[in-house]
Amino acid sequence: MHPYLIPLLTFAAAAAVFTITPGLDTAMTLRTATTSGWKAGLAAVVGICLGLGIWGLAAAFGLTALLAASETAFTVVKWAGALYLAWLGIGLILHPRTSLGTAEAVPVQADARAAFRRGLLTNLLNPKVGIFYMTFMPQFIPPHVNVKEFSLLLTAIQALLSFAWLALLVVLTVPLGRFLSSATVVRRMDRLTGSIFLAFSLKLALSRRA
């Protein structure tokens, strides 16, 4: 057996548990897929996974050590993320959608771009993701390996697991498309997601460095 296989499998198992645990990424994926369609849902997933990849890349090169070492850097990114989530949440609560297929609807391509941007920013503006990579991944890096290369490999595994799980959630919304597209469901989904975003905004604002 390859000496690196066990740490890779162990990391994959642990990362899978974190991935399927419901959180902000899950809420954003489900809300986007149900209210904007599967294309926008997948665009949000790609944005989320790209954000994870960027944080993992930063961790591999030690950039996120700045967040762990500097109270100022952590606070700036933390409050930027908290305010962004609060802005999204309040917008969804005060101005929920009532339908998906109106003449005034946003074009599919533009909606997908917006979903991608939201998915990317919610990860990039969350310093806890960077701290997670800095504290979690080193536990699975065996001795006598190239730390940067192995860290990037672990990041790729995490991103692939996240993409697979979130994409599956998007696919599962397709058979329920007619039910999920009703005005009542869309409105309630937006407000529920907005409340979740506000909760995560508060949680992020109150968070401290590990």
TrEMBL record:
Broad class of where this protein is predominantly found: membrane
Keywords: Cell membrane, Membrane, Transmembrane, Transmembrane helix
InterPro entries with a match to the protein in the record: LeuE-type
UniProt KW Membrane keyword: yes
Compartment annotation: Cell membrane
Membrane topology term: Multi-pass membrane protein
Protein name as catalogued: LysE family translocator
TM regions (residue ranges): 43-69, 76-94, 152-177
